[in-house]
Amino acid sequence: MLKLQNINRRFGDKLAVKNVNLSIASGEMVGVIGQSGAGKSTLLRMINQLIATSDGAIEFDGTKVSSLKGADLRNWQRDCAMIFQQFNLVPRLDVLTNVMLGRLNRRNTFSSLIKSFTEEEQLEALEALERLSIAQTALQRAGTLSGGQQQRVAIARALMQQPKMILADEPIASLDPRNAKVVMDSLKAINEDDGITVITNLHTLDTARNYCERIIGMAHGEVVFDGPPEALTTEVARRIYGAEGLKDAFSESMTSTSLEDDNETPAQKRRGPYRDADEAHVTLN
Amino acid sequence: MGAVSQSSPPKLSDATKKVHQHYQELARTKKLYSFLTIGILGAILVAALWFANASNSGKFIDRIPYFFDFVLNFLPDDPLEIFRALFDLPSPYADGSLKYDYEEGRHYLFGDFYLPEYFYEMLVTLNIAFVSTLLGGGIAFVLCFFAASNLVGSKAVRFVVRRIMELLRAFPEIVIAGLLAAILSLGPIAAIAAVSIHTIGALGKLFFEVVENADMKPDEGLRAAGASWVERVRFAIVPQVLPNFTSYALLRAEINVRASTIIGAVGGGGIGEVFRLSLSRDHAAKTYAIILLLFVTIVAVDQLSGWLRRKMVGDQAFQFGA
Questions:
Q1: Which residue from A63, A156, A182, A216 has the highest number of Cβ atoms inside 10 Å of its Cβ?
Q2: Residue B88 C-beta-side C-alpha neighbours within 13 Å
């Protein structure tokens, strides 16, 4: 159980996140929506403690995460893996090493520094990559992959952390619809199969509706909606996006994940991307 | 934890197993090369140190007991003499010799107000460094864009510009100063020319490497808008590279302060020249006064350049985290 109590975050004299109170149960799939600048990213980064909170407390299973330091803080960061809009991989290292870097927190620093990973870790990393259908890219430099492939490498790295929670900050905002769907399907599958909590920032309504069982709407740093997708009426959406932004939110939805055939069942939708791995990019050197 | 857990042995497809085999082969080769490289470098280092020691006139180990002899025998009459020498105050030990003629060096500015000799000489040195950093940096700034492979397609142009830069930085400042002194006569002008020439070569190389690392997307954007080469350099490249250029130029300014001090010792004027004189004449108080002044100046220049870099590059570059 993740609890946020009266969270504020100031940047200079600007209040980016205002008095946020939330509790998120283990295993939930939560979508955070809102316009850019609404404080979604800041909120996610505070959970991972990439950014410190200005006021308030973040608790996870009774531990006050927001006041952790040193090794305890790094252990928490390992437990809540983060996925970024721009993937944040190491472009010059090969894919497999990138994935194994997810293990850094659990390993001896010296053996990590000389890049000495055990056979077991290599196999686990490959398994994670295989699960995301990109095992064949394992020996390429991460920087040479397409955006969708890079984001899947990032997810594999997150899995390697053996996290309790995955935080995804606009994971599909830089991707084309097909890859966006692959990435969202992967996150959903991880949530359902492994029981890992997933909290993801999205700026489009339909993606959040399709994938999340709970939606949190933010506007101007405040939580203005918190409920199931069914409760997200046009009226509420207008509160989240403003009268101007609402049109964008719907039009942008056309370019997000709404590519699939409506006749498919949700389960088929999810299995889709695993079925048709990116054959075009398969290279075995 | 499903698929990614340590308890259940992972089951990989045959294709992935092949990838794994390949990875292990690559890793083994890399490891072998790393060990070989480290071993060879280590052997070379040991051999080089042995050679250096063997060609030394006295043996290093044998000389260690005499390490402090110079400092012990080279002492001023009393510690206050250092400050009298530094601020050109009359010495109680004055006997008409050059050793105690501190007041002689005063540079009167107006009335009784004077600039002590060593402060004046320090200014001469700082001036050499400042002028040659500006001159050399300016010319390097213009040249560097013609040496960058992402901006200039013609191999011939790049080749010529790069060789010019290499030639300019091939000789140490002190050698150039020696050559130029024959033409420009001894003094700060020869020093400025020498340090500037070396600065063009050294900064030019650093600058064009920064340019080659620039992101070319803005350039593509402006090219698509019909901008000329000069316009693209001005608006797509310069804004990106300027912070790095500033850092390198300020680092070069610090190096040039030291370089112009050394040039002074071979006749380039400034603090280096008076330092060499006082040292060779066995004037301990003067020598320590100059060492003190040099130390304070170099710390001050470092601080100043750090502050300037902060101002010019912007604070956000120094902030921790996001």
A1: A156
A2: 16
